[in-house]
Amino acid sequence: MKIVITNSSNIPLYQQIKAQIKDSILIGELSDGDSLPSIRVFANDLKVSVLTIRRVYSELEAEGFIISQAGLGTFVSAGNIELIKDAKRRVVEEKMSDIIKTAKSLKISKKELNDMMEILFEEE
Question: pLDDT tens digits, residue range 7-21?
Fold first, then answer.
């Protein structure tokens, strides 16, 4: 898993890291049971505070994406499959919402948009 953070972003570091871990889980780069680095190792690798990583892990655990086991480590938890499926749907819905706004601003009809989507979906 590769995490890229930037200090020049308006998005706080912990949110950048958290979003990238969630994305890795959602696209299947990280699977159920995969081990995540310890807080200290991860903080050193990313050159951020251990408090930043602790916050990331805490929020991801609260959302059901990871589980921490004392003395064993932190692991991806796909135990709540519906939560993960719903998160994937939300990602798609957000992107579709942006597409619809753009299409409306360009006066592209719903039928044209559906036709484009069908063609593009079949190409992939």
Answer: 898 999 999 999 999
| Cα 5 versus chain centre, distance | 14
Q: In terms of C-beta density within 10 A (0-12 exposed, 13-18 middle, 19 or more buried), how is residue 56 classed?
A: buried
CA distances from 105 to 8, 29, 82, 118 (A): 31, 35, 34, 21
Q: What is the CATH number of domain 13-76?
A: 1.10.10.10
Q: Which two tokens stand for residue 65?
A: 């994406």
Model confidence, pTM: 0.69
